[in-house]
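Bench notes, afternoon.
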Amino acid sequence: MGKNGTFPARFCVKISGRILSIEDGGNASHLNTVIFYRTCVVDNIMESTKSLETSGNFRLKGFPDFNGTIRLRGSMSLCTFDGCNHARNLNWSWTIIISGLLFTLYINS
């Protein structure tokens, strides 16, 4: 509870989307708010979909900072590495930059 200290998580979860409705006594001022949320979980919460990414409408209950149940349209990613942040390899970027500079120097000489 609270995830303070050592937490035996096996998966990272990233949720992003726009709130479409708030039920069960939630604050309606959050409608159309775009949220981004990351957390860690022990169990594979997407086991039923057999996919690590999905998009569409989601209903979340007990979501931090929101009373009631929220429904949002967005995406959810589950991963076991890199915090669900798929970054490009910078080595290719540097190779392209250096090649471009060398080509420019060759043309100008």
